[in-house]
Amino acid sequence: MTDLARSIPVMPSPDIGESRDFYRDRLGFEIVGPEMNDYLIVRRGEIEIHFWRSDDRKLPEVSSCYIRGGEVPALHAEFLARGIQKLSDFAVRPWNMKEFHIHDPHGNLLRFGCAPEEIEGQA
After folding, report:
1. Confidence band of 1 (pLDDT split at 50, 70, 90)
2. Most buried among 1, 17, 25, 100, using CB within 10 Å?
3. VOC domain location, by residue (predicted)?
4. Position 1 in a domain
């Protein structure tokens, strides 16, 4: 089967336009589909995230998603070069995943990770 099922996070946003601008202009995602005031789809390679408009500004502060794979070290280097605010260090955590994270402008947590052995020999 070539069309495998996958999981796509659907995260809250109190301001779809601000989310669009951050993910497109700061993180390098492309906008997928038509512009809407209450829903947003962004994609970067195989990473896809959906956003729904929420009037509850506290929801993004307790929402997160995990992005995993061998592209993660290059993403950290790129985000560092772009001067992304709230970018954490890229380090091996106690659960043996090399990770970094970003909070978007509304507080949604994006955690990026890969197993250290997946990137042996990489910078």
Report:
1. low
2. 100
3. 5-115
4. no
User: Which domain, by its residues, includes 80?
Assistant: 10-55+63-119
Q: Mean pLDDT throughout 20-28?
A: 98
Domain count, the chain: 1
Q: What angle do CA 9, 11, 14 make, to 5 degrees?
A: 165
Inside any domain, residue 4:
no
Query: What is the three-state SS of the chain?
Result: CCCCCCCCCEEEECCHHHHHHHHHHHCCCEEECCCCCCEEEEEECCEEEEEEECCCCCHHHHCEEEEECCCHHHHHHHHHHCCCCCCCCCEECCCCCEEEEEECCCCCEEEEEECHHHHCCCC
- Lowest mean pLDDT: which of 11-15, 65-69, 93-97, 117-121? 117-121
**Nearest residue to 116 via CA among 83, 88, 86, 94:** 94
Q: What CATH number does the domain containing 96 carry?
A: 3.10.180.10
CA-nearest of 53, 62, 72, 57 to 115 is 72
